[in-house]
């Protein structure tokens, strides 16, 4: 048996990039995976690929900033697979994001950005935790970033908020046997990252990483699978850097 046979996972922002890698890894370990993305066509493509590889996947359109949309996502998962065991809050506005300062960013854009990149993790958690509780518990991973510990304008602010949200939710959900942790990737070589960090800057960025390379989506999978597994059954409220040594935290 694969380690996640009979488990059901929702991965938001799974229509590409890191979210797709998480979803495919979970399916490869036997989980039924809900591919949740605002881009329904991209979600369908990933779900189809998983199905063609022998896995179980359902594509669902979701706007993580909208409680009604998140509730519908959870209802689809329960209707199709009888419940939810795992949630990965990966959805974010990142690829093509505006680059601006906190003092000057358009206020409506800022509010929309934070509603997805910070509030979305809470919205989706609220949508699924009762199903997790009814199944005896579960595990949640929030996607943070090393940007939480450096200047990165509203993106860094949102990720610092994700770290705090992870800690707060771990206290509220722990008695339900629901664990909440976060993964903070360093620079990952994805299409979205390349749209934000120009190629001319990537060389300088790599110089700040002790392991001297950009990360890949595969570099994140071990931590993801570990945190959802029984091996991590006594770990909650923690933020784990997977960053090639970019950030030192004491």
Automatic annotation (TrEMBL):
Keywords: Oxidoreductase. One of its GO terms (molecular function) is oxidoreductase activity, acting on the CH-OH group of donors, NAD or NADP as acceptor. InterPro entries: NAD(P)-bd_dom_sf, SDR_fam. The keyword tRNA processing does not apply. It comes from the Bacteria. Gene3D superfamilies: NAD(P)-binding Rossmann-like Domain. Transmembrane segments: none annotated. Belongs to the short-chain dehydrogenases/reductases (SDR) family. This is Short-chain dehydrogenase. It comes from Mycolicibacillus trivialis.
């Amino acid at each position: 048996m694969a380690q996640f046979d009979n488990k059901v996972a929702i991965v938001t922002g799974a229509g590409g990039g890191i979210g797709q890698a998480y979803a495919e890894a979970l399916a490869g370990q036997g989980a039924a995976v809900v591919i949740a993305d605002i881009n329904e066509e991209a979600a369908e493509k990933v779900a189809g690929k998983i199905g063609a590889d022998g896995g179980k996947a359902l594509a669902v359109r979701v706007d993580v900033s909208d409680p009604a949309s998140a509730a519908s996502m959870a209802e689809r998962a329960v209707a199709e697979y009888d419940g939810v065991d795992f949630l990965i809050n990966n959805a974010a506005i990142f690829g093509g994001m505006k680059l601006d300062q906190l003092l000057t960013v358009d206020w409506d854009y800022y509010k929309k950005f934070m509603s997805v990149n910070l509030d979305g993790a809470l919205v989706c958690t609220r949508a699924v935790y009762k199903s997790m509780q009814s199944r005896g518990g579960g595990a949640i991973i929030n996607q943070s970033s090393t940007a939480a510990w450096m200047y990165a304008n509203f993106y860094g602010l949102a990720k610092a908020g994700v770290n705090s949200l992870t800690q707060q939710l771990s206290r509220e959900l722990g008695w339900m046997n629901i664990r909440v942790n976060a993964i903070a990737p360093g620079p990952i070589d994805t299409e979205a990252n390349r749209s934000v960090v120009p190629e001319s800057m990537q060389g300088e960025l790599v110089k700040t990483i002790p392991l001297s390379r950009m990360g890949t989506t595969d570099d994140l999978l071990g931590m993801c699978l570990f945190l959802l597994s029984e091996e991590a059954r006594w770990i909650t409220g923690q933020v784990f850097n997977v960053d090639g040594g970019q950030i030192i935290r004491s």
